[in-house]
Protein: SnoaL-like protein
Organism: Saccharothrix carnea
Amino acid sequence: MTQHTDSQSDLLPTTVREFFAAHVVHDADTASSFLTEDAVIVDQDETFHGREETYAFLRDAGAEFEYTTEQIGAHRADDTHWVVTVRLEGTFPGGVAELDYRFTLRDDRIAELVIANHPA
């Protein structure tokens, strides 16, 4: 898996930047360390609650495919919400996807992450 970054990464809070860096290389231990104890992750309408479920998601998400991840956008929605847009290319159905990772922060930790298709 390859991660490409751009200057927009510099705009992100350290928590989001480091979580994302760990997530794209399937380092679930490091990625989960940035989550709150009661974190929620929603990925394509499937919801994972709390430490055990979110860790399992981070460990297993996309593991059956080979793909590259390129960050193509990032912005701050407000004081606690950030969005990272990525482009995935790989062996999954369709071969290409653009996704928004919508982060909600609480006390410098990720309280919620919603992963959804990027609007066309």
Notes: Residues 1-7 have pLDDT under 50 and may be disordered.
